[in-house]
Design brief:
56% of the residues lie in helices and 3% in strands. With 233 residues, the chain is mainly α. It has one domain: Skp domain (Protein Binding, DinI Protein, Chain A). The chain is elongated. It starts with 23 loop residues before the first helix and ends in a 19-residue tail after the last helix.
Length: 233
């Protein structure tokens, strides 16, 4: 879907309130790796692979799809009403000089104008939401990459497109020739641990949100009131 061409990366950093156990590989704290005297250490990350396999991406895609379907449904309703009014005007049963004919004609004009405004407004809102999502996802991936690099001593992270190697479509030749990285060692690719952490964190966040929705709201118990005892005679 064309609206999803705007979206290009992955999720806002979760708060420290989420109790997650970091994956053993690559996430253990390494004080030596943080030594500023260490030499340049470069890593690469496949943003496209993360986007395609990140679980939050699918959830967001469904939300955007629902918004587009809702817009299309409303536009279809307006179109149907407009067609009905047009048929009434074209049957010849109404006198073009009559008030009834002119009222229908004015209503048709108003409906057409509203549909154009609604379409434009809805389109802009979807684009605005897509841009917001793009920023949110990109910020999240950067936060997780930063966390991984701080724990493993990487000083620079470059974008790589691992899927470009298998491209056979001439129209996609740009993916091959426009890569930022021509060669890297497998050990320098941090895509897998970054993606694993993102998915684990999202699953924990989603599970927490579902649990909060499922738990019934309970009223706070009333504060105890003091009872006056009878005075002894």
């Amino acid at each position: 879907m064309k609206h999803w061409l705007l979206i290009s990366a992955v999720l806002v950093a979760c708060s420290g309130a989420l109790a997650l156990t970091l994956p053993q590989h690559g996430w253990a704290d390494n004080p030596a790796a943080r030594d500023p005297r260490r030499s340049l250490k470069i890593a690469v990350v496949d943003m496209m692979q993360i986007l395609e396999n990140y679980k939050k991406t699918e959830a967001i895609r469904e939300d955007v799809k629902a918004a587009i379907e809702n817009r299309n449904h409303k536009l279809q309703e307006m179109s149907t009403k407009g067609q009905d009014l047009m048929k009434e005007l074209q049957t010849g049963e109404l006198d073009p000089a009559s008030k009834e004919y002119k009222d229908r004609e004015a209503k048709l004009f108003q409906l057409d104008s509203y549909a154009k405004v609604y379409r434009s407004s809805a389109e802009k809102e979807i684009q605005r939401q897509n841009m917001k999502i793009m920023v949110e996802l990109n910020n999240d991936i950067q936060d997780v990459v930063k966390l991984f690099c701080e724990k493993n001593g990487f000083t620079i992270v470059m974008r790589v497109d691992n899927g470009a190697r298998s491209v056979t479509d001439p129209a996609a030749a740009g993916r091959v020739v426009n890569q930022d990285v021509l060669y890297h060692k497998a050990s320098e690719d941090i895509t897998a641990p970054v993606l694993a952490y993102l998915n684990k964190r999202y699953e924990a966040s989603a599970a927490k949100a579902d649990a909060e929705k499922a738990s019934p709201a309970t009223d706070s118990p009333a504060a105890p009131t003091a009872t006056k005892g009878k005075k002894s005679k």
